[in-house]
Design goal:
The complex is a heterodimer of chains A (313) and B (429). By secondary structure, chain A is mainly α. Chain A is built from 13 helices and no strands. Chain A is 75% helix and 0% strand. In chain B, the strands form 4 sheets. A 6-stranded mixed beta sheet of chain B has the order 2-1-3-12-4-13, sandwiched between helices. In chain B, strands 6-9-5-10 form a 4-stranded mixed beta sheet. Helix content of chain B is 45%, strand content 12%. Classes of the chains: A mainly alpha (313), B alpha/beta (429).
Chain lengths: 313, 429
């Protein structure tokens, strides 16, 4: 019994000593670790946390930008900006528009990027040329690329000339049904190069042996793609989906330039475009901040769902 | 624990930032009002105005060694108004900006960014003497002048004489005075003139686009009314409905396209007409054989009775200015008769002063093409100086876009609904 007690006591002390040593060691590691991560934490606080905190503050006030030292009234108004946003037809329409955009853009991006990356990963002629070609739109200034698309899809543009009597009426960019899907296709095309690159990187980590084994089991190219490639790049798919959703939710340049300020009749207006109009052009910064916070929450919810579906081990 | 710490750091940063927002104080208004010394100014970035701005700064600096002025083009941005808003918020706006849009003045004023020029002893009298009766349109609701009306580009109809001739129309006296004439001429131009559009204003949704389609015609049809007067919308009256209906017919008949043109439709001779100001003379001189007439009215009013949109730009004095006495003197120096003459000479834009043809007879004798714009400049109407000005214009544009450009719903009802919204915005504090 005494032996047992001694042993237990020793064990406890030993554990305690190990724990203490471990804690002390951890604390030491944490201090140096904290130093190393400090620049990034400061960056996060300055670039993300502070603006989000300020946006939350603004959204609860009748806030507008003012000159330093100017005596202005920006009273606390509680949830009024949020209530107004949920009752504002233009805001609701913009969220609906961006939902249409995401429904088209995200799956299209994932599928095309994965298929193209798989093709570009194979030993095909002019592989480098194709890889660069798909990447060029991504690094080209949006204003320039939008100009090209305006020429392509205007009423008298090349696409309608080719379609002839099959051209839509009203034309693409002024058609309430087609404007947003066209923007979704444009953005998918423009950003494809970046996502192809992510998938190409991911494909390097799929073991060749798996393809060999599948081949020996009689799997054809399609079966290998579905059973080896798709599961093999699942983490990349989660990343692509997440990034495409986040960048898509922040859609601004295309409705601003391609469809002339979210037209026709707001059919291509995005929440960020509405924020720009309200906050920057019209001086309703508090209201714009409320729309922004709603957008952040919506994106976080979507990201959470994507993590549940795609991010599980 | 770590999360708590991070949250605390974030809260401190936010708190510090927030307190910093209101913590910085500028010079006291009383001290600044009488202070003299160096100042900086911004002007527009087109070559003509840059040349004028540099000439003004050079002339002033030669005689004022202790009150030197430095000038620069307005920094690049989506628009001048956004750049100015950012500068006001950051507290680094220049003393004077020679490109202040009247529609943005109510917002700049609300932001505490503008100095009331009426606070200078001779402020109101100087503006009213130079600008005449039109000065009243630039007064804010509190009676003060927060802008100096500077130059105007009265909107008129430019037309391509060659296209008119090709369509079998009289290019020297084109039938464009009444709505019926204008519509018939437009149909002929598209049918026989070899152009895609009779006239092609931007069909997009930006708040300012109505200044270049509906508003000049509404002003002309109504005999010089503003969009909003004394807090009440005017555009849903008979004149507004006629002007909107006129554009609706152009869109419906395909004489005006429903999408933006990528480029300059008039210069490319894709459209036979355009609504422009005198700046266009220099731009189109070598490209188009042009003529100019007033904007149409429902029944074809005589040219001397037609009013139009001013497309004016003002000079704003900004509250970050520490030497406002110098700024005020420089502002007067650059809007004196000689300086206005140089502006006219270099840019072709009309200074906001009465009797231009008699004040600068030599210029108009040498440049007769500008005379019609000088005559029109005396009958210009500004955007209303009301609270939420830009929101008012965006609300109107949204309704106009739907009912007129895309022909959805009942037009009078759409204008009435928009008027109700605008009335609420224009009377908010």
């Amino acid at each position: 019994m005494a032996v047992t007690e001694l042993t237990a006591d020793q064990t406890t002390r030993s554990r305690s000593a190990r724990s203490s040593s471990s804690s002390s060691h951890k604390a030491g590691r944490q201090r140096i670790g904290a130093l190393f991560i400090a620049p990034y934490v400061i960056f996060l606080v300055a670039i993300f946390a502070y603006p989000v905190g300020l946006a939350v503050y603004m959204s609860f006030h009748e806030y507008f930008f003012a000159a330093p030292g100017a005596i202005v009234e920006r009273p606390f108004i509680g949830l009024d900006n949020y209530v107004k946003a949920f009752a504002d037809a233009a805001v609701l329409q913009s969220f609906g528009n961006v939902a249409v955009f995401l429904i088209i853009n995200v799956p299209l991006t994932v599928i095309l990027a994965l298929v193209l990356a798989t093709a570009l990963n194979a030993a095909i002629p002019f592989r480098t040329f194709f890889r660069v070609s798909y990447y060029v739109p991504y690094i080209t200034a949006s204003v320039a690329v939008v100009g090209v698309w305006l020429f392509l899809f205007s009423n008298s543009g090349m696409v309608n000339s080719l379609l002839g009597p099959l051209a839509p009426d009203p034309s693409w960019l002024v058609n309430e049904t087609l404007a947003m899907p066209l923007i979704a296709i444009y953005v998918s095309w423009k950003q494809l190069g970046f996502f192809v690159l992510l998938y190409l990187a991911a494909l390097q980590n799929v073991p060749k042996e798996l393809y060999e084994a599948a081949s020996m089991d009689g799997a054809g190219r399609l079966r290998q793609f579905m059973s080896v490639t798709v599961p093999g790049v699942r983490p990349a798919t989660f990343l692509v989906t997440l990034l495409a959703t986040i960048t898509g939710a922040n859609l601004f340049t295309e409705p601003y330039l391609l469809t002339g300020g979210g037209g026709p009749n707001g059919a291509s207006a995005s929440p960020v475009l509405v924020m720009y109009q309200e906050g920057i052009q019209q001086g309703n910064a508090g209201y714009a901040a409320a729309i922004g916070i709603i957008l952040i929450v919506a994106v976080l919810l979507m990201a959470g769902v994507q993590r549940l579906v795609l991010g599980r081990k | 624990m770590r999360r708590t710490a991070l949250a605390a750091v974030t809260m401190i940063a936010v708190g510090a930032g927030l307190s910093g927002c209101g913590g910085e104080s500028g010079p006291s208004a009383e001290e600044a009002a009488t202070a003299t010394g160096g100042i900086n100014i911004w002007y527009a970035n087109n070559p003509e105005e840059v040349a004028w701005g540099k000439a003004m700064v050079e002339a002033w600096n030669a005689d004022h060694p202790d009150e030197q002025v430095s000038g620069q083009e307005i920094p690049a941005g989506e628009s001048s108004e956004e750049v100015i808003t950012a500068a006001i918020t950051a507290g680094n706006a220049p003393c004077l900006i020679y490109n202040t849009a009247p529609a943005a003045v109510p917002l700049f004023e609300k932001q505490g960014g503008l100095v009331s020029l009426s606070d200078f002893e001779d402020g109101a009298s100087y503006i009213e003497t130079r600008t005449g009766e039109r000065a009243a349109q630039y007064q804010s609701p509190d009676g003060g002048y927060y802008q100096m009306p500077w130059k105007t580009n009265p909107s008129m109809i430019f037309y391509n004489k060659d296209v008119f001739t090709a369509a079998g129309l009289d290019a020297e006296n084109p039938p464009l005075a009444s709505y019926d004439e204008f519509l018939a001429t437009s149909q002929t131009l598209v049918d026989s003139g070899g152009v895609q559009a009779a006239i092609w204003p931007a069909a997009s949704s930006e708040f300012f686009q109505s200044w270049f389609d509906f508003y000049p015609l509404f002003i002309a049809a109504s005999g010089g009314q503003q969009l909003v007067e004394e807090g009440e919308s005017q555009f849903n009256n008979a004149a507004g409905q006629e002007a909107a209906g006129f554009w609706a017919q152009l869109y419906e008949r395909g004489l005006t396209p429903k999408e933006n043109y990528t480029g300059d439709s008039f210069a490319d001779q894709t459209a036979a007409m355009s609504i422009v100001g005198p700046w266009a003379i220099a731009v189109y001189a070598d490209k188009v054989n042009w003529g100019v007439v007033p904007v149409p009215t429902p029944d074809g009013a005589a040219p001397g009775e037609v009013s139009t949109f001013s497309d004016e730009k003002s000079i704003g004095m900004f509250s970050a200015c520490q030497n406002r006495a110098t700024a005020w003197e420089f502002l007067k120096f650059t809007t004196a008769e000689d300086a206005d003459g140089q502006l006219l000479e270099l840019t072709g834009q009309m200074p906001m002063r009465d009797d231009l043809p008699t004040t600068y007879p030599d210029y108009f004798a040498a440049n007769p093409a500008y005379e019609i714009f000088a005559d029109q400049a005396a009958r210009t109407v500004e955007v209303p100086n009301v609270p939420n000005s830009i929101e008012v214009w965006q609300s109107f544009r949204d309704a106009y876009s739907k009912a007129v450009i895309f022909g959805e719903g009942d037009l009078p009802t759409a204008l009435d609904d928009a008027a109700e919204t605008v009335n609420g915005l224009a009377t908010e504090d």
